[in-house]
Amino acid sequence: MEHTGEIDPGLQGLLQDQDESAVSVLGEKFLRDKDAADHPPQTVLVLSDKRLYQLGPYYERDASEAFRKAQGTNEVPLSDITEVNTVHIPVSRWISIVGGILLVLGLGILLAGLIDGSGVGLALGLFIGAVWMAVPGGLMLFHARTGGETYLDVTHAGGSLAAPCRAYPENELKAFKTALNDAVHN
Q1: Hey, how many other C-beta atoms are within 10 angstroms of the C-beta on 154?
Q2: What are the distances in angstroms from CA 130 to CA 11, 101, 138?
Q3: Which of 8, 137, 176, 180 lies 20 to 30 A from 115 at CA?
Q4: If 0-12 CB within 10 Å is exposed, 13-18 middle and 19+ buried, where does residue 146 land?
């Protein structure tokens, strides 16, 4: 959501300076869903004319360049931001292979247990076949169909912070990224 100086009263206390004004907010709707500990359920990024503020859960890159989840708040001066990227991490093809194997084996064990008809056969079929193999296998196949995860990654002098893109409408994400790039490069 684009802002022209008008800022949600809940965000007003976030800005450090009196003469600082909000430029753009990503995830403002999540501020309404704060829990009792005052944490939004998804990452909220507030871009001002001087800083980038982050509230709630976010992701940071570790030494292996993988994203790991973190919780808290960050404020980064615009002069410290070095790069703004969209990073896509695809699902490994092994997820779908292992998921398919688990699903087929699980359904086979379930079917064998149902055909056997005894109490032990039914228990083995339901618990080992369905619960321990077919359900996780099906979930792995479902996860593989998502195609992976895309993050809005902001690299700064102190590290990086990222927000998962699927949580935001595409137009809101695009407008925020454009405003952030403009603020960093001007």
Answers
A1: 25
A2: 48, 13, 10
A3: 137
A4: exposed
The helix or strand, by DSSP H or E, that contains position 124, with its residue range, turns out to be helix 119-124
Q: What is the pLDDT along the chain (186 residues), one digit of tens a residue?
A: 444 445 465 565 677 777 777 888 888 787 666 654 467 788 888 888 888 988 888 998 887 878 899 888 888 999 899 989 888 888 888 999 999 999 999 999 999 999 998 999 999 999 999 898 999 999 999 988 888 889 999 989 888 899 998 889 999 999 999 999 998 887
Long-range Cβ contact pairs of 71-77 (< 8 A, separation 24 or more): 71/39, 74/161, 75/16, 75/51, 76/51, 76/52, 76/154, 76/156, 76/158, 76/161, 77/50, 77/51
For residue 179 the two structure tokens come to 């405003």
Query: What does the block give as tokens for 101?
Result: 């194997």
Place of tokens 């907010």: 25
Structure-block tokens of residue 67: 């994203």
70: left (phi over 0), alpha (psi -120 to 50) or beta: beta
What backbone torsions phi and psi does residue 184 show, to the nearest 5 degrees?
Answer: -75, -40
